[in-house]
Amino acid sequence: MARLVEGNAILKELNDDLELAGGGAVLANLNEEEEECGIEGVFCPLSKEDLKVIRDNAALHAKSGRRSKRPSRGVSICEEGKFGSSLLPLVMSTRFNKNQRRSRGGMGRGLPKKGGGGGKGTWGKLGCELELPWVDRNDPNYESDPEDTPTKFHALVPEMGEEDMQKLVEPLILEYFENSDAGEVIYTLQEMLLNIRDHRSMIVSITVELAMEHKSSHRELASVLLSDLYQKVISQRDIGTGYDYLLKQLPDLVFDNPDATDVLGNFIARSIADDCIPPKFLKSYKSCTINDYAVKAIERADALLNMKHGLVRLDNIWGTGGGVRPVKYLVKQIIMLLKEYISSEDIHEATQCLQDLEVPHFHHELVYEATVMVIESMNVHTEEAICKLLQSLFRSFIVTIDQIRNGFERVFDIMPDIAIDVPTAYTVLERFCDRCRKAGFVTDELNRKMPSRGRKRFVSEGDGGRFKEYW
Predict the structure, then answer these.
(1) How far apart are CA 367 and CA 406, in angstroms?
(2) Where is the composition biased (Gly residues) (predicted)?
């Protein structure tokens, strides 16, 4: 799945280098770097000459420590020199030893030294147990063979298989579709970079396959993620290998996703527009017919790239997310949705169109526009159709009770303005609210908030006498 395709030479020509996060270095081949150092692993041992110098210095230090102590500073001993031996008699300076406080027997009194490193009741200076022991060849436990042989440590990195990659990447991508945090995905995959070295192309194939099964906003997130992973986790060759695998699997993908050819063509064109793969990748497949579905996907990507201002338009190939669209555009789409529903009365199609807008926080606008449309139409048939639609959306938990309450309250606030154009607005609203209350998605509390305009009382109907007294 993640291996290079031998039949397509363009994959071998793509760059396979990654930029390290440290500072612009390129991670091309870890084995080459290990061969340059002459080792395998992370530990670089010393040469034989350096080890010999260290052992000689340690032996000399140990030898000097075993020398007998001089009885006093007044004792002068001339040891064997370079030009022969000349032992001079010991010259004891009684005058100097007379005023000396240390013991004349050559042994101390058991007092601690000036640095607190010895003496009676002490074990040595603080931290002396942390010092490395000197290497002494005269030590009975001394072993010379391990020191003379260079040490090599082999770094064993467990490599993940295809099933392990599927278990690692799939939950990570699904979580990314929910929180849109690309940094977390990059950080997790970079930690496993050594383990997935030979299966990095599976990241591309798994991401695109999951995006095919989701909506357009998730496909946009997948395209952004592939662009962010480029040169950090995956290379040009990995992206090309992943798309090559998907082109060969299109006959199977079409069974679950009928629009898989168009979706894959959009992904390939978007990757070329994002400079993740070069345009020559697409040209190499024009003469190579893998299968009929792959030809359609290649033609789709080529048409998108060759259209006027194609690279600029590919930035919105998946459309604009609901939270980014302007309010006027959303209101216009909702009004068109309601008008089409009233003419066709297809609840399933209206529900699908509402979900495609991806604005659950703006569903109160649907309730508001639907209620205003009922009042302005003054038609019983429209009332019944809108009531069925709102009831279906409420029972399927697409429109919440809070959105319904907010939509009706907005209508209640503008009723004086609506009544100017529609004199019977209050009567129609009362009849529609009563129908919705019986349907079960309008509460009694909300129904009591419904405004009602009382009929004007004329002078002839009462209080006429008091009114005339002032004249």
Answers:
(1) 8
(2) 105-122
pLDDT in the model for residue 102? 63
Q: How far apart are CA 34 and CA 426, in angstroms?
A: 84
Burial 72-106 (b: 16+ CB within 10 A, else e): eeeeeeeeeeeeeeeeeeeeeeeeeeeeeeeeeee
Number of domains comprising the chain: 2
Q: What is residue 300's predicted lDDT score, i.e. its pLDDT? A: 92
Token reading at 96: 């100097």
Residues of the chain with pLDDT under 70: 1-10, 16-17, 19-55, 57-124, 132-133, 144-150, 288-289, 310, 320-323, 453-471
Q: Is residue 382 part of a domain?
A: yes
- Return the closest-CA partner of residue 171 out of 161, 152, 160, 184: 184
Structure-token pair, residue 50: 């350096």
Query: What is the C-alpha to C-alpha distance for residues 226 and 206, in angstroms, rounded to an integer?
Result: 11
> What sign has the CA pseudo-torsion 377, 383, 388, 393?
positive
CB atoms within 10 A of CB 264: 28
Helix axes 201-212, 162-179, angle to 10 degrees: 50
Strand, coil or helix: 87: coil
My answer on whether 276 and 348 are in the same domain is no
SS3 470: coil
By residue range, what is the domain housing residue 274? 10-19+160-316
